[in-house]
Amino acid sequence: MSLRRLHHEQPASFAYSEANKARAEKEIAKYPPGRQASAVIAALWIGQEQEGWVTKPMIEEVAKLLDMPFIRVLEVATFYTMFYLAPAGEHVVQVCTTTPCWLRGSDEVVKACKKHIHDKPQTVSADGKFSWEEAECLGACVNAPMIQIGKDTYEDLTGEKAAEIIEAIRRGEKPKTGSQIGRTSSEPAPTVLKEVQS
Fold first, then answer.
1. 97-150 pLDDT tens trace
2. Residue 7: what pLDDT?
3. In CATH, what number is assigned to the domain containing residue 135?
4. 38 lies in which domain range?
5. Is the domain of 68 the same as that of 119?
6. Which pTM does this prediction carry?
7. Is residue 59 left, alpha or beta, with left meaning phi > 0 and alpha meaning psi from -120 to 50?
8. Is residue 175 reached through a cis peptide bond, with omega within 30 degrees of 0 on the bond before it?
9. Which of 21, 73, 88, 140 could cross-link to 16 by cystine, CB 3.0-4.6 Å?
10. Is residue 185 part of a domain?
């Protein structure tokens, strides 16, 4: 995420809901006195779950809550790609475009995202349901190409299959996660013996 994205129109303030304030305090309590800054990732994550993205007022509130300088919280928010510094869709599609995925067709997956979400990455779709972005390695190179949506991964994709997954989620369905060609874990791709030689 680039720093310039923090210049997106910001809400006037941020406050945790009662339930989320309790969650944040529970995370802070895991650390000894004077070490509450260790809860910064959890505090930002809880805030993002509540608001959908990390705002400047949220960073200010987290800094106050953890007795940290604003800049230290900002450093964390801008370092980790799991934090969105501008409004994001309800579902964020992360498309791995590093070498293994690219070699196996991630360009087609990107085209599907451009067609079914928005032509530009990190832009919310017209229905507010999706945004997409390119991501560094998502850790399933052997099952490339892949996408991650929330906590779910979809592997062994084609552009067509990626489009089907996006549209299924848009309809409120829960598509099958993991390999889309029937692999279990990272076993070799299934093959069919077509000829028997004697």
1. 999 999 999 999 999 999 999 999 999 999 999 999 999 899 889 999 999 998
2. 53
3. 3.40.30.10
4. 3-79
5. no
6. 0.76
7. alpha
8. no
9. 21
10. no
- Is 102 among the domain residues? yes
Among 15, 50, 79, where does a domain finish?
Answer: 79
The distance from CA 142 to its chain's CA centroid, rounded to whole angstroms, is 20
Three-state DSSP class for 46? Answer: helix
Q: Name the 3-class secondary structure at 21.
A: helix
Same domain, 26 and 97: no
Distance (Å, whole) CA 54 – CA 93: 17
Choice among 11-15, 42-46, 128-132, 160-164 with the minimum mean pLDDT: 11-15
* Tens of pLDDT, residues 65-80: 999 999 999 999 999 8
CB-count burial class (<10 Å; 0-12, 13-18, 19+) for 119: exposed
Tell how strand 91-96 and strand 147-149 pair up: antiparallel
Angle between helices 70-79 and 40-51 in degrees, nearest 10: 70
* pLDDT band at residue 184 using 50, 70 and 90 as cut-offs: confident
**Residues 160, 140 share a domain:** yes
